[in-house]
Recover the amino acids of this structure.
């Protein structure tokens, strides 16, 4: 199945072509490993900006037997919206992109801690500032820090 969408935003033209294949009998090993595997999908994205054209292709597997190429496209786009939103929030509130941790599991461990902190700060609703402001307030106000930590336990 095939679905195509074209968008003209932010000074660039982006064409996304979605392909899915449900005839996956040939994927015997993969079907054993991924229970419920229904098909595979591909997305070819072509972006034209300032006369320069770049193309990339991404692949995915799915378990929804009713999947269409159009549904695959919508789900893939909404997944990236969530990913981009989370990444933006972590970068703004925690300067995650500036991290230079490279040894051992340090980067992975800090990523887990940042996610935990982000979730705790989002749950605290008495302070009407952004995540970065709440984070700073935790450093300035010991009682507020305790409130954030206690909200998570309750």
């Amino acid at each position: 199945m095939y679905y195509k969408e074209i968008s003209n935003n932010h000074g660039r033209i982006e064409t996304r072509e979605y392909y899915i294949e449900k005839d996956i009998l040939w994927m015997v090993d993969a079907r054993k490993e991924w229970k419920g595997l229904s098909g595979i999908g591909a997305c070819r994205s072509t972006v034209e900006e300032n006369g320069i054209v770049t193309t990339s292709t991404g692949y995915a597997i799915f378990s929804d037997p009713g999947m269409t190429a159009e549904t695959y496209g919508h789900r893939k786009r909404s997944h990236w919206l969530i990913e981009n939103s989370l990444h933006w929030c972590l970068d703004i509130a925690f300067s995650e992109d500036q991290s230079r941790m490279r040894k051992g599991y340090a980067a992975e461990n800090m990523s887990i801690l940042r996610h935990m902190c982000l979730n705790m700060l989002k749950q605290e609703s008495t302070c009407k500032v952004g995540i970065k402001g709440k984070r700073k307030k935790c450093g300035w106000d010991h009682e507020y820090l305790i409130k954030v930590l206690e909200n998570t336990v309750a």
